[in-house]
Amino acid sequence: MNTKESYAVVTGASQGLGKALAESLAQKKINVILVSLPNQYLKEVGQEISEKYNVKTHYYEVDLSISENVLKLTEWLNQSFNIHILINNAGLGGTRKFLDASTNYINTILQVNVMATSLITHQLLPNLLKQPQSYILNVSSMAAFSPIGFKTVYPASKTFIHSFSRGLHEELKNTNVFVSVVNPGAMKTNPDVSKRIEKQGFLGKLTLLDPNRVAHYCIDQLFKKDSVIVVNPISWLFMQILPIWIKLPLMTNAIKKEIGV
What we know:
Blueprint: E1 7-11, H1 16-27, E2 31-36, H2 42-53, E3 57-61, H3 67-80, E4 83-88, H4 103-130, E5 134-139, H5 153-171, E6 177-182, H6 191-198, H7 202-207, H8 211-223, E7 228-229, H9 233-241, H10 244-259
Helix pairs in contact: 1-2, 1-8, 3-4, 4-5
């Protein structure tokens, strides 16, 4: 793999897990293309990574909830770069009563989490297939393994990501493109997020993760060709063992604590 002449694409790369994933790749001397919303200091993030790790970086500011924007992004990527790694990290959550949710709120979550992930992967796949060895990592969530009241749309979208990734892995297993999925819990991306998650009580604290540690582990496991990356074995086991009739009210009650319902 000639990483000097090829690039990794990371969406949602301006902060949190996305930024940490980009840094983990750069530490391995892999050039990165950062994708995120406008006005997220993406240029500065790219410059910081480039100077710190001595790799090439490019950036692209875009709202991935609009299909036309996604197609313009992938057209630019295909015309300009050899892509050997795609990390679909961009995603939106949210916690509120479904009745109170706006149509824009619902649509944006589905467009970013489901449409953008699928479309970016589809459009970049021919590029990935041209490389000697390529990798796709899709970021799902522990929420993929249970419906949750007051979140409703988000867990359903992450269930899609998990299923999509496993299916695509099977479809491409005899090619040079390896597909993996990770299902992390909540991240300590900033003090406000940590405080909000900790309000959920035991469940929230159990799943709260450090994005830098998750990122390093994910990249290592991706190159080891681990198709389902488990970053928190305790919560993973918890989600797999508990029946839905216990899991669903338990997780919903945790969310109710978070929002004070």
